[in-house]
């Protein structure tokens, strides 16, 4: 059965880039100031495990000295379209979503993630400046039920959004589904659609026989999530991450061009800046495609 097509007319408004590892600074050279929004996503804040089970106590793995709040403040002053987001979860085999106790995990996760966000608040006079803009839910390994994942992550998102100390810092929440974990992320989204702003779908984690197949999957996902304005297409410059799949960067650009020509694409994300360095050719190409500048 063919899915009905959404008739939303979209212009690409957002470009997102993951930073994974130990860059010495934000790669500002890739930023196209003509983009409406440009996000750097810091990866990852990872869980702490006891006897193989997640405790909900998250710690950052990126270089805080090189990518800390002062660097963010300088970046957002120089580039008004830039925002910085913290990614929660991780891609390693050890970074598994598997809480021992749901409610204890939620309480710990809310508290520890809040602390990570507040580390990016700069005190100015009697107030402060929040330099992060949101969080990204990005687990590639889940060892729990679909309902537990949706319940735990949904509650953490809600509690962080309701925390008055974090009003600006929780302005944008994204999730990062893969084909293998689609049931988990789709359930999470459908139960929390008013709290989730972007869907970073990892197209680079599967294979396609043709560009048209890529476009068809994009339209199918728009239908399943019911979110044409939120679905972002993902591509990887990490040859290790994408080596098992057939989607090349050239393939991806062709697919995005088709979606742009039918006003169907809200934006794109790239994994990741570390693999793209030092040239960032793909990032520049996609942003020029979006902005015509």
Write the layout of secondary structure elements.
Elements: E1 14-20, E2 37-46, E3 49-50, E4 53-54, E5 59-60, H1 69-78, E6 82-90, E7 96-97, H2 102-118, E8 121-124, E9 127-130, E10 134-139, E11 141-142, H3 146-162, E12 172-175, H4 182-191, E13 198-201, H5 211-225, E14 231-236, H6 239-242, H7 249-261, E15 267-271, H8 273-276, H9 281-291
Parallel strand pairs: 1-2, 1-15, 2-6, 6-10, 7-11, 10-12, 12-13, 13-14, 14-15
Antiparallel strand pairs: 2-5, 3-4, 8-9
Helix pairs in contact: 2-3, 3-4, 5-7, 7-9
Written account of the structure:
By secondary structure, this protein is α/β, with parallel strands linked by helices. The chain has one domain: TIM Barrel, CATH 3.20.20.80. Helix content is 34%, strand content 24%. It has an eight-stranded parallel beta barrel, surrounded by five helices. The protein has a two-stranded antiparallel ribbon with strand order 3-4. Strand 12, helix 4 and strand 13 form a beta-alpha-beta unit. Helix 2 crosses helix 3, helix 3 packs across helix 4 and helix 7 runs parallel beside helix 9.
């Amino acid at each position: 059965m063919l899915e009905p097509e959404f008739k939303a007319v979209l212009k690409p408004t957002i470009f997102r880039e993951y930073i994974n590892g130990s860059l010495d600074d934000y790669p500002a050279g890739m930023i196209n100031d003509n983009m409406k929004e440009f996000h750097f996503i810091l990866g990852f804040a990872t869980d702490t495990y006891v006897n193989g089970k997640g405790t909900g106590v998250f710690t950052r793995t990126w270089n805080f000295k090189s990518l800390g709040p002062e660097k963010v403040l300088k970046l957002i002053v120089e580039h008004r379209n830039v925002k910085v987001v913290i990614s929660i979860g991780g891609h390693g085999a050890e970074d598994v979503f598997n809480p021992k106790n749901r409610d204890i995990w939620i309480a710990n996760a809310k508290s520890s993630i809040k602390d990570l966000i507040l580390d990016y608040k700069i005190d100015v006079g009697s107030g402060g400046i929040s330099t992060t803009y949101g969080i990204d839910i990005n687990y590639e390994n889940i060892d729990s039920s679909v309902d537990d994942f949706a319940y735990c992550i949904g509650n953490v998102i809600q509690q962080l959004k309701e925390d008055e100390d974090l009003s600006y810092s929780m302005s944008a929440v994204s999730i990062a589904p893969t084909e293998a974990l689609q049931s988990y992320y789709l359930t999470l989204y459908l139960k929390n659609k008013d709290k989730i702003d972007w869907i970073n779908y990892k197209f680079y984690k599967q294979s396609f026989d043709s560009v048209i197949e890529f476009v068809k999957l994009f339209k199918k996902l728009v239908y399943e999530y019911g979110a044409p304005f939120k679905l972002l297409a993902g591509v990887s410059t990490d040859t290790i991450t994408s080596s098992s799949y057939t989607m090349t960067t050239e393939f991806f650009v062709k697919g995005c061009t088709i979606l742009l020509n039918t006003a169907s694409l809200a934006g794109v994300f790239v994994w990741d800046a570390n693999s793209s360095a030092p040239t960032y050719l793909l990032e520049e190409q996609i942003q020029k495609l979006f902005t015509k500048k």
